[in-house]
Amino acid sequence: MAPNDEPTPRERQVLRQLAGRVAEIAALPIQAERGRLWRAMNALRPERPLVLADPQNGWPELVPETDLVCDDPLLRGWELGLRQTIFRHEQIHDDRPVTSWFNVPWAVDVGDYGLTERQERTDAHGSYRWDAPIRTIGDLDRLHPRRIVVDHGETARREKLARELVGDILPVRRFGEAVCRAKLTRVAIHLRGLQQMMLDMVDNPELLHRLMAFLREDFLREWELYEAEGVLSPNNEPDSQLGSGALGHTDLLPPAQTAGRPHMADMWCWGESQETVGVGPRHFYEYVLSYQLPLMARFGLVDYGCCEPLDTKFDLLIRHVPRLRSLAVSPWSNRRLAAEKIGRNYVYVYKPNPTPVCSPEPDWDLAEREVQETLEIAAGCCVVIVLKDTSTFHNEPWRVTRWSDLASRIAREMAE
């Protein structure tokens, strides 16, 4: 939407109606109760296992584009977010609270490193391959820090528009970087290549060390810039989703309303390295974790892991990561080993295999059995069960409802 454009009467009406419904949902007593349960979980004093269902790439089947009324891209994004919040409350019966905040995204332009890969994709969310631009150690000299520009004027325009549209219904605020993902190896493989990075650990360590050090410093520079510009946003609120999939609501970090401009020390950091799933502990520490540690050390709490099994890395993470609070247990992890290593010292974030829910023919017995078995294996741990990595529900939105119902029922039964 250009600065002088105005929402149409229809766009204004739809956004205000949706905002009103979200305000009603956010005011329900169940939201405060859910928030209390998350604070207890992240304090390592859970009252019961908690359950989340994250539709992720399956959202277009739950809230289709055809349902959207707004034409302007910014307003369309706001409409989509409001509709997803309403769908979540009405159809996904899990432990995620709904808050009343209307978040306006900061306008930030992030440049490249001077070298970029050429990608070939099947579709926006499917597989792809790429040509990595770093071929020799000399190519490292062509890298430069990313140019990052925070557009305060455009951000203020967005905020003003949001306040005019829905500010009397929902509290409006600017919202920027809240993930702070130490994804060094994700960037490294696009610059160097996945297979080549593995080979570099053996036959070209100087190149890999230089590349990882460069990325570490550039990530830190980005976050320091966001901190100085006020772009960092709280990620310990009732509905703040962490990288592992759990929620970060906690009293261990300053609440949003008193933190002012959050600093890194007031926030969670997410560490992960899915690309090095096949790398042993020694090389993982040397080429990955040692470069993530200075980044994670700047934060108040750390959440580690995503889809990669951490079976051979739990000891390293527990020994070295400061203020570690939650660990991801992927479908490919040894659940018993994870329970032994994590105990009640950290939050055990288990992500069931989404296949039984997302296959052409769902297998509800298998889905139920996996949740039941996991909660039995991890009895005594601080357990969160998160359904994610869901790319399709085969246009049957009721599937996510059924999974959230069965998982929530089992979690409550296990607590009795």
Q: Assign the CATH architecture.
A: Alpha-Beta Barrel
Instruction: Label the structural class.
Output: alpha/beta
Q: Give the helix proportion (percent range).
A: 40-55%
CATH class type: Alpha Beta
Q: Provide the gyration radius in Å.
A: 22 Å
Count up the domains: 1
Give the overall pLDDT as a whole number. 95
Number of strands: 13
Low-pLDDT residue intervals, each spanning 5 or more residues: none
Oligomeric assembly: single chain
Shape label: globular
* Beta-strand content bin: 5-15%
- How many DSSP H or I helices? 15
In whole angstroms, the N-to-C terminal distance is 53 Å
Strands of the largest sheet, in order across it?
A: 1-13-12-11-10-9-8
Secondary-structure element string = HHEHHEEEEEHEEHHHHEHEHEHEHHEH
